Amino acid sequence: MVSPQLAPPQTILGTGVPKALLQDLATKIIALNSDMSLLELAERLCLGPAVVEEIFQFVRKEQLCEVKGMVAGTYRIAVTEHGRKKATELLSVSQYTGPAPVSLAEYSSRVRVQSTQKTTILDKDLVGALQHLVLQSGIVTRLGIAMTSGTALFLYGPSGCGKSSVAGSVAAAYRDDVWIPYAIEVDNQIITVYDSGVHTQSDPGSEQVDKRWVCCKRPLVTVGGELTHIALELQFNPANRYCDAPLHMKANNGVFIVDDFGRQHIRPAELLNRWMTPLERQIEYLSLPGGRKFTIPFDVFVVFATNVDPSRLADEAFLRRIPNKIKLDYATTTQFQEIFRQACAELSLNCDEVALDYLIRFITTELKRPLCPCYPRDLMRQISWAAAYRREEFRVDKQSLEEACRNYFLETAKPQGIGESCEDHGCLKHPI
């Protein structure tokens, strides 16, 4: 389901952005092409023929372009020498030549219309999104309640217990699509928002829409230890002279995951203080390169995933602003067996129940470790590597499992608790 359609503007005034900005953008696009039709210019600007006709009449009047002929019932145009000089000046200020932007007001209004807090999370959709995971009883319901809140969630527990996998799967439970603008205009400056690395396009269901917007699945953005202060601000590129939206802005109307929270370059307290107001009031303050501040909606379902005790990362005042807290723990014997069977099925292998029972005894009795949900798939990888090296058939049995364990675990290590690292736990760092 797509949120309400966006009617295409019929005039420059209807675009909501300054006329001069659109004219300058068109001049740059024309100058960078040997010649083009007005239809091609409309496609580049993502604006309708009537709006482009208005723009063309001004550009032609200012002798920035000239008509070279007709093609398919429309003008074929080319830049003049005067237009080329003007375009060079404009490109020195900003090299943006993409689709026309939308206004900040229109963007803010659209984000609020398609808020995560206004969408309905169905139990069947969430169950489907998490069906590849074996979770403790009641976890799905608690996740559904957290997603319905549209606010923030702490997923915590020992390393390797599925926090990243759960966080990365919940976005698939959203059934409705959202509209993402290619770019927005603020104080005559362009900020790009749509990112093909973040946004997944879907079918808008109609051609009669404002093509400055892209119909997408709800965004999912994940950051890890690389997160810094700078990543939370507008990204100004001095080479192309325009700004790119920060990742949490690109995640608006979707999910933003801070993985391995507590291990970022930015200290936990600094990040939490930075987001105190956004989480509480659902607004974010950003600054343009010139210093002007402006606000945007902060409509993001934020997931903090950590193997550090949350009470060590934030004080009580901040924890109150994260209303949902779910612990993911070690697997029970039954859950571990199911995870192991799923791992075998994914590799089209028959599950050797005798070998499985032996593995559980080996881990819990000889290695004296809890049953971590990440072990089955990690050990399967170890076995596959060994088989590939020896050029043998991939086989899961007692011997191959024991060898995999010897390679995977440190020879001496204590069981991991919340707040201990993967190194303390004695296993390789695992993405979940």
Q: What topology emerges from the helices and strands here?
A:
Layout: H1 12-15, H2 19-31, E1 36-37, H3 38-45, H4 49-61, E2 65-71, E3 74-79, H5 81-93, E4 102-103, H6 104-113, H7 123-129, H8 139-149, E5 152-156, H9 163-169, E6 178-181, E7 183-186, E8 189-192, E9 213-216, E10 220-223, E11 235-237, E12 242-244, H10 247-250, E13 254-258, H11 268-274, H12 276-281, E14 283-287, E15 293-297, E16 300-306, H13 310-313, H14 316-320, E17 324-327, H15 333-346, H16 353-366, H17 375-390, H18 398-408, H19 422-425
Parallel strand pairs: 4-7, 5-16, 5-17, 8-12, 10-13, 13-16
Antiparallel strand pairs: 1-3, 2-3, 6-9, 7-8, 11-12, 14-15
Helix pairs in contact: 2-4, 2-5, 3-4, 15-17, 16-18, 17-18
Characterization of this structure:
The chain has 432 residues and is of the alpha/beta class. The protein has 3 domains: 18-98, Arc Repressor Mutant, subunit A, CATH 1.10.10.10; 106-327, P-loop containing nucleotide triphosphate hydrolases (Rossmann fold, 3-Layer(aba) Sandwich), CATH 3.40.50.300; 333-425. Helix content is 40%, strand content 17%. The chain has 19 helices and 17 strands. It has helices spanning 12-15, 19-31, 38-45, 49-61, 81-93, 104-113, 123-129, 139-149, 163-169, 247-250, 268-274, 276-281, 310-313, 316-320, 333-346, 353-366, 375-390, 398-408, 422-425; strands at 36-37, 65-71, 74-79, 102-103, 152-156, 178-181, 183-186, 189-192, 213-216, 220-223, 235-237, 242-244, 254-258, 283-287, 293-297, 300-306, 324-327. The strands form 5 sheets. It has a 5-stranded mixed beta sheet. A 5-stranded parallel beta sheet has the order 10-13-16-5-17. Strand 7 and strand 8 form a beta hairpin. Helix 2 packs across helix 4 (49-61) and helix 15 (333-346) runs parallel beside helix 17 (375-390). The chain starts with 11 loop residues before the first helix and ends in a 7-residue tail after the last helix. Mean pLDDT is 90; it is low at 417-432.
